[in-house]
Write a structure and sequence with these properties.
binds zinc ion, alpha/beta, two-stranded antiparallel sheet, 199 residues, 4-stranded parallel beta sheet, single chain
Length: 199
């Protein structure tokens, strides 16, 4: 005889598929959701539904957006001469929280990782090349992670756009090689971006 009801086992199975959540944590979360008021639990369900139905990638920079363009691309106060290239939307968020960079972004949605079978075609490099060639950028900031793959991706972009003669800056100062941008602390990111501090 099964000890759990069908619904409870299903919830545990789904929770256990989340990254970093093992079977025990999934059980704890499921029992927590059974205990909290119905409205709180359904608010979580609604939030999940809402991101899946409403969130998409920005047409220009591939940041998360709830329309064709993200709030950064739509912001008229952003400096359209600076373009900072990052791997993932979460890297962009880490840099924004460091709160000193006034320019635009381009999110690659990954990095070149030959060992995992991820090549340049699977990233947003074509759109990047198009933006850089059509835009008025005066400086490109390579903020891919300081890992072997991140460095390789930065090098690939430098070569791809070498003929534009737009200067590149590698954002790596102060960030330990191998550390991941997402987890670098705010002070270090702020320092790394100090060259673009608003005056
Ligand atoms: Zn955007």
């Amino acid at each position: 005889m099964p000890l759990l009801t069908e619904s409870v086992s299903q919830l545990i199975d789904h929770l256990a598929r989340l990254p970093g959540i093992g079977k025990k944590s999934a059980e704890r979360l499921a029992y927590h959701l059974l205990r909290v008021p119905k409205a709180d639990a359904l608010a979580l369900a609604d939030a999940i539904r809402s991101v899946k139905e409403n969130v998409r990638y920005c047409d220009d920079c591939f940041n998360l957006a709830e329309g064709p363009k993200c709030t950064i691309c739509l912001d008229p106060k952003r400096d359209r001469r600076l373009l900072c290239i990052v791997e993932q939307p979460r890297d962009l968020i880490a840099l924004e929280q460091a709160a000193t960079y006034p320019g635009l972004y381009h999110v690659l949605l990954g990095r070149i990782a030959p060992l995992e079978g991820i090549g340049p075609d699977q990233l947003t490099l074509e759109r990047l090349a198009q933006r850089v060639r059509q835009g008025a950028f005066e400086e490109l900031i390579l903020a891919t992670n300081p890992t072997v793959e991140g460095d390789g991706t930065a090098l690939y972009i430098t070569n791809m756009l070498a003929d534009t003669n737009i200067p590149f800056t590698r954002l790596a100062r102060g960030i330990t090689p191998g550390s991941v941008l997402e987890f670098a602390n705010k002070e270090i990111l702020a320092d790394a971006l100090a060259g673009w501090q608003k005056v």
